[in-house]
Amino acid sequence: MLEKEAGLAAGQDDAREDVYHRDNKRERAGQPSSLSNSNSTTADPALTRAKNCSDNNVRGVGRAPYVIRVLIALKLKGIEYEFVEEVVGKKSELLLKSNPVHKKIPVLLHHGKPICESLVIVQYIDEVWSSGAPVILPVDPYTRAVHRFWAQFVDDKLPPGIRTLRGMGGDGDKDQAVEQLSAALQLLEEAFVKLSQGKNYFGGDSVGYLDVALVSHVGWVKAAEKIAGVSILDKAKFPNLVAWAHRLCAHPAVADAIPHADKFVEFSLKYGSFTKPTINSGAK
Amino acid sequence: MLEKEAGLAAGQDDAREDVYHRDNKRERAGQPSSLSNSNSTTADPALTRAKNCSDNNVRGVGRAPYVIRVLIALKLKGIEYEFVEEVVGKKSELLLKSNPVHKKIPVLLHHGKPICESLVIVQYIDEVWSSGAPVILPVDPYTRAVHRFWAQFVDDKLPPGIRTLRGMGGDGDKDQAVEQLSAALQLLEEAFVKLSQGKNYFGGDSVGYLDVALVSHVGWVKAAEKIAGVSILDKAKFPNLVAWAHRLCAHPAVADAIPHADKFVEFSLKYGSFTKPTINSGAK
């Protein structure tokens, strides 16, 4: 099934677009976001060869979870890249040319060749930069299949509820969205216990494919809590998942790619939330 | 995004289920479908090691495209397997236990360990039986990414139109469904020309991942034509795709897994088509 990067297309409907802006260190420093990114995770000498490939161009909107996961994958691998921010509401010529089928972000241009669909891109990154770089997909085929299964689950179950809580429409009301998200997080809490086996990540000792897929939604889950005045990612209900999110968001390859929840709220208000945020003390 | 094997769950709604029955040689001979399958593609001595793994159990309903692709992948690899037909409308205990999250077919049980979601299963099969067996995923990472992209496209774009033409509901009417399906097939026609490079399959000389993903829907496209009295997979419009489908459906690993379109029509009438089939001379 096509990954639902629905609403992430640049240019379809400005007021409703489910795109996020990026707030990384470069942007905070006032630098244009199209500058080449030399991130802090590239110190490993073993990655020198991979780093030398600078012809990597990511087109997207920095708050989109599907863009975030591509950036995290590149940072995990220690790959230099240029990030080009698409203007919300205006599809660039290069985007239209690079992804003529869906006309959506993210697109990775590697030596000028476009790769589309975020989970396809993450797998591509893992396969192309396999030598001397950390692996993202688990090596064991069964564990890999389990990660792929849950990554699909994440993209199926989380975005609809988040959109509803942001006031972006959807099938159900706020209570139903909270219920659906909680049910999904409960399954992910249990999956984490099984997959991590007492270690830090879904991938065990290292950040894996499912870690990348899920953490890219965390910022918007937190923003949805603030916007709708509800509690979802509750430490009492999902202690392992909350601890995982806290830990992973502090990881050097992730910290720079995921903005603070307030930035998502700002963006949501600007580009399509129909409700005013209610900063609820119960919201995380 | 979670692969939409929606409506393929055994047991949710008998009258509406979008499941297909299998009509392979074994069934035609009146044998129970749970017998071990020794298919005709396993003659290659190089596959002896792989063949010896007989602890492969596929649970599904034989006319489901998502089941068909798992069987094709196993046959391509020359892997012996046991196919257990799920009873439409009754989820087996083993299915519920094997896929507790989605409770859907297909499930591959390999040495008792369940793998769910058809495209995840196909990749698992390709990775586990990699030695001495034909490859399914292209070896080149970029080509692999392109196949993954189009496989997602196939599962996103074809099932909704097919369901509408079967009278199973959907967003649009018959004309819209034909239009949507034709638009998708036009893109796939163009993709075939690019990817096959004048050879037989999307995978070039050999059957690849996208071949497996797409051909599993061909039977239902033809059935939808008959049920709705329309022409979709039209040789004049899509000459390369029609020739590809004809060629691939005759491939030994595929011929046994895909029933004749009439069998899909029969199933559709029994389990949920709201319209009577109109056998249109224009339908292929």
UniProtKB/TrEMBL annotation, chains A, B:
Gene3D superfamilies: 1.20.1050.10, Glutaredoxin. GO terms for biological process: glutathione metabolic process; toxin catabolic process. Residues 1-54 are annotated as: Disordered. Residues 54-133 form the GST N-terminal domain. Keywords: Transferase. Residues 140-274 form the GST C-terminal domain. Residues 13-29 have a biased composition (Basic and acidic residues). Its EC number is 2.5.1.18. Residues 31-43 have a biased composition (Polar residues). It catalyses: RX + glutathione = an S-substituted glutathione + a halide anion + H(+). GO terms for cellular component: cytoplasm. One of its GO terms (molecular function) is glutathione transferase activity. Belongs to the GST superfamily. Tau family. This is glutathione transferase.
